[in-house]
Amino acid sequence: MHVNAFECIDENVMALSDNKRYRDMELAPGVFVPDVGMEYPEDDPLARLVPFKKKRDLKFDETYPFLEDTFAFRLQRHIAYFLVFGPYYLANWLLYGIRYEGRGILRKYRKEFRKGIVSVSNHCYALDGMCISEALRHRLWIPMLADHFNGNQYWHLKYFGGIPLSDGSISATKKFNEAFDVHHGRKAWIHVFAEARSWLFYKPLRPFQKGAFTWAYKWNAPVLPMALTFRPRTGIHKLFKPADVPLVTVRIGEPIFPDTTQPRKAEVERLCRETHAAVCSLAGIVKDSWPAMLEDMPSETQTGN
Fold first, then answer.
1. Distance of alpha carbon 6 from alpha carbon 24, whole angstroms
2. What angle (nearest 5°) sits at the alpha carbon of residue 186, between those of residues 251 and 217?
3. CA distance 69 to 76
């Protein structure tokens, strides 16, 4: 039996019940829906909900080094993982009780994954990149919104493997794509938050953008669906966050393989829709209330305006 999303919320916390995306979503029985007191947009999946304070003025044009390939950068990234990101992983467990399900997929498809993958997930809190990396036991390269690189997270994003989106010019976009071509050629694993923007502990799955699936087709790389799902806060974790902040489980699904004998446009769309459906299933969403692709939204919402 399917249930309406807001029926899963505590009866005393009904702030989400009037949001049509929650009201129209159907979930599998027992799926937990957190409510952290936020008001989420109903019709603009690209709305910015994370505050941004500009600290620097980097330009993400053709002069930006999208491909960091110096010995100094590689050494500093290696050091950062041990001295800085190690404590972050611990903090992620203490604050959010991270659990991982489906890691057997990594062993099952070890041969198919050895030349690189494109993993895709929802985007729902500040440390989700950390838990995706830990779930896959792999250092990742992640395309990220450029604004954040001009904020106070610049160092962490850069050395964690974040690469800012270009300013949209032809020359800069070419260099941005070339950087990921090089990383994939080195058998790197690339993760894409296909919803683009992070919405804190948001349950419905927003529409996906097609970039990840265009890469998967171009490289003939498996797409690995992943979902960040939520649990009530329990045990020792109650000491580190308020009771309404959920704990997080990362679920890994079966890979979806591109068929490069098919026309690119149709195959990219198939990959996008099937991956969206797979992430919904992993998250316990029986019927999502957003369309699967950003192109299915009215044109004014496709640019984040």
1. 9
2. 60
3. 12
* Token pair in block for residue 269: 């769309």
Q: What is the pLDDT of residues 202-261, one digit of tens each?
A: 999 999 999 999 999 999 999 999 999 999 999 999 999 999 999 999 999 999 999 999
Q: How far apart are CA 21 and CA 30, in angstroms?
A: 19
Burial call 199-222: b when 16+ CB within 10 Å, e when fewer: bebbbbbbbbbbbbbbbbbbbebb
Q: How far apart are CA 234 and CA 186, in angstroms?
A: 42
Q: What are the φ/ψ torsions at residue 154 (nearest 5 degrees)?
A: -50, -55
pTM for this predicted structure: 0.92
Q: Which residue has the tokens 């806060």?
A: 233
Tokens representing 168? Answer: 């949209």
* Position 32 pLDDT exceeds 90: yes
pLDDT recorded at residue 300: 58
* CB neighbours of residue 14 within 10 Å: 11
Q: How confident is the model at residue 9 (pLDDT cuts 50, 70, 90)?
A: very low
Taking 3-state DSSP, the helix, strand and coil percentages for the chain, each rounded to the nearest 5, stand at 40, 15, 45
User: Is residue 231 within 8 Å of 101, Cβ to Cβ?
Assistant: no
Q: How far apart are CA 83 and CA 34, in angstroms?
A: 33
